[in-house]
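Example 3.2
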Amino acid sequence: MPIAMILIFVGVFTVIAVPIIAIGSTRKTKQVLATLDSALATESPSAREQIVNLRKDAALSSIPWLNAKLLRFQLAPYLHGLMKQANVSWSAGRLLVVSAACFAIPAFGVYNQFGTTWGALGAGLLVAMAPFGWIIFMRNRRFDLFQQGLPEALDLMVSALRAGHSLIAAMGLVARECADPVGGEFRACFDEQNYGLELKAALDNMLLRVPLQDLKITCTAIMIQKESGGNLAEVLDKTAHVIRERFRLKREVKVHTAQGRLTGWILSLLPVALGTALYFVNPGMMSILWHKPIGIKLIWTAIGMTILGGLVIRHIVNLDM
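Structure, written as tokens:
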């Protein structure tokens, strides 16, 4: 009964909090736009200072007390950086509130339907990880797009350098001509360098935003050429060739390990699908697993062995390149 009360409280809280966050974000956006409009219409020092403060505002949540709590933990900056890498315009507080809602609703439903506490907690935790999984999926997809577009960006830089442009001008050309995410990241690096930041610091910031091995190779080649000298166009041309070869090799490895990855997915999902089918066929027989102590132990043992087997197969088919 206390578990049910807790789940009801969390569910009601999230149902009320999500609309409040949406309304608060809309009001805050309108307020910021109105402030910017009024500030741009005048040239007073106070207005310019207000614009600077608005640009430096990076709240982790639109709820004041939740924002104050998140600032105390190291997890909030990590989540903020993760969503920046995924190009998702959420705050850390919104992600946590959505995850709490995803936990409360299925957990309460499972507890109300089957009356098992451990099953409700397991279902709630599984669904609560869905927002984080979506963020990681968007992050990986954006990194894949960046990795695919990086050789073409390097080719454009090589052409600009051979035409007589400087390295900074070549980066500006990539920022203008290439599509996102390559163009957006190079634009941020180009702007940071123009605002007075050193080239090494600007490249390090880009590596923090896009921690890919191919980009590390590119930035290392640029910094080595900057310190030791040489033909930068030739260095970047060879770097683009190396990146293309690594990308081709990765695709070949992915093709050859497709059977192993498919086997891992089948072996991981087969117990869940088979158990669900057996429950619909004979609910009384399957309900023994969560009504008897030995059944609960068997469920946790099966979950642990399935996760362990999936991790082993993942370690076998994934190659560091």
